[in-house]
């Protein structure tokens, strides 16, 4: 065993794989876009733009409303990450807050925060947890409890269905993918004709 396999590179590799495993189990990108949508909504009403001796303040009378909307979007983004069971509620709430921010907070943070929060909410509503792949079609598999010792994620094995081969009688059979052919009963039709090989 080399010193490189137990050093910094191996630890970074394990952390990256663990993060990827964590990210796949939740609507990660929906939460990230929602978090990013809250930032311009909160920032612009309290920011001062200085051009030479001229100071432009973009504060509105509803500055506290902008703060509340931005903080709620931030909380909803974290909820999508850590409580993915309520992702649909969080997504719908993000979309509604994005729409309200158009009126209350400088056109939703100059449309930047509005678009980010709207996109994040839509992603959260559309996301659904995937089912693990199995070797047998139509079967279910259990998720592993922890990462293997080698640090690699489980490999997904799928058996392709193969092309569909038409038969002269009009029926279609999937072409065999693995070595061997279909049983004799399936290759012969009722009228005695064989399917094209």
TrEMBL record:
<protein>
    <recommendedName>
        <fullName>Integral membrane protein</fullName>
    </recommendedName>
</protein>
<dbReference type="InterPro" id="IPR046096">
    <property type="entry name" value="DUF6114"/>
</dbReference>
<keyword id="KW-0812">Transmembrane</keyword>
<keyword id="KW-1133">Transmembrane helix</keyword>
<dbReference type="Pfam" id="PF19609">
    <property type="entry name" value="DUF6114"/>
</dbReference>
<feature type="region of interest" description="Disordered">
    <location>
        <begin position="134"/>
        <end position="197"/>
    </location>
</feature>
<feature type="transmembrane region" description="Helical">
    <location>
        <begin position="58"/>
        <end position="79"/>
    </location>
</feature>
<feature type="transmembrane region" description="Helical">
    <location>
        <begin position="28"/>
        <end position="46"/>
    </location>
</feature>
<feature type="compositionally biased region" description="Low complexity">
    <location>
        <begin position="160"/>
        <end position="170"/>
    </location>
</feature>
<keyword id="KW-0472">Membrane</keyword>
């Amino acid at each position: 065993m080399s010193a490189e396999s137990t050093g910094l590179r191996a630890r970074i590799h394990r952390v990256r794989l663990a993060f990827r495993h964590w990210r796949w189990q939740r609507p990660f990108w929906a939460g990230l876009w929602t978090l990013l949508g809250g930032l311009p909504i909160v920032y612009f009403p309290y920011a001062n733009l200085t051009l030479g001796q001229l100071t432009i303040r973009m504060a509105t009378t509803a500055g506290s409303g902008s703060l509340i909307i931005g903080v709620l979007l931030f909380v909803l983004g974290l909820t999508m990450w850590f409580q993915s069971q309520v992702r649909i509620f969080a997504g719908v709430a993000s979309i509604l807050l994005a729409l309200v921010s158009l009126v209350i907070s400088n056109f939703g943070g100059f449309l930047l925060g509005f678009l980010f929060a709207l996109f994040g909410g839509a992603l959260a509503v559309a996301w659904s947890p995937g089912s693990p792949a199995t070797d047998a079609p139509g079967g279910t598999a259990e998720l592993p409890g922890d990462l293997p010792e080698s640090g690699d994620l489980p490999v997904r094995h799928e058996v392709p269905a193969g092309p569909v081969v038409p038969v002269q009688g009009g029926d279609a059979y999937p072409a065999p993918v693995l070595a061997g052919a279909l049983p004799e009963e399936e290759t012969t039709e009722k009228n005695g004709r064989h399917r094209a090989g």
